[in-house]
Amino acid sequence: MSVFVYPGSFDPVTNGHMDIIQRAAKLCDKLVVAVLVNSSKNPVFTLEERVDLLKCAVKGIDNVEIESFSGLLIDFMRKKNSKVIIKGLRAVSDFEYELQMALLNKNLDSDIETLFMMTNINYSFLSSSSVRELARHNGNIDGLVPDCIKDKIMDKFRR
Q1: CB–CB of 112/86 below 8 Å?
Q2: Which residue has the higher pLDDT, 86 or 158?
Q3: So where does ATP get bound?
Q4: % of residues, the chain, pLDDT over 90
Q5: What is the pLDDT confidence band of residue 46, given thresholds at 50, 70 and 90?
Q6: Residues forming the annotated binding site?
Q7: Which residue ranges form the domains of the chain, and what is each CATH number?
Q8: Sign of the C-alpha dihedral, residues 135, 136, 137, 138?
Q9: What's the rounded mean pLDDT across residues 27-52?
């Protein structure tokens, strides 16, 4: 069984992420969307909230599972018996960072492959930080995030 892992902070999940999830899920038997605890970031949404938002967003995609992890991605990959990392790219600037990470992961485990997927051009401008900024100022996030989580995101910033 082929298991791919799509890691990220997903703070929050956007339609750009969903584009990658939907397309990557067609390439494997199981796609694990891995919500990471990143000590270098201060997420707005808690780990539990990010997992819950993703679970809502992927309802109906049968071969997608949502999990969280901390530590090295390579260790999580081994635990999941996965050899493929999925990374979404919006622009060349994303590629530079992700290439470094892919090479580092390859150095740690030569059996690991990183599959880069370009996001749909309709989402090439979209980031979690832009969604947070819009929501923080009561801006319109319609079409930027899955409908089932839009109100939860806006509610987070109304507090």
Answers
A1: no
A2: 86
A3: 9-10, 17, 88-90, 98, 123-129
A4: 92
A5: very high
A6: 9-10, 17, 41, 73, 87-90, 98, 123-129
A7: 3-158 (3.40.50.620)
A8: positive
A9: 93
Tokens 């892919």, residue? Answer: 102
Distance CA 45, CA 51 (A): 10
What does the pLDDT average to over 106-130? Answer: 95
**Euclidean distance between CA atoms 53 and 5, whole angstroms:** 18
The β-bridge partners of 33 are: 6, 66
Question: Which residues line the annotated binding site for ATP?
Answer: 9-10, 17, 88-90, 98, 123-129
Task: Name the residues annotated as catalytic.
Answer: 17, 41, 90, 128
Q: Residue 113: which H helix or E strand, with range?
A: strand 113-118
Cβ pair 86, 6 in contact under 8 A: yes
| Ramachandran category for residue 49: left, alpha or beta (phi over 0 → left; psi -120 to 50 → alpha) | alpha
Q: Which residues participate in the annotated binding site for substrate?
A: 9, 41, 73, 87
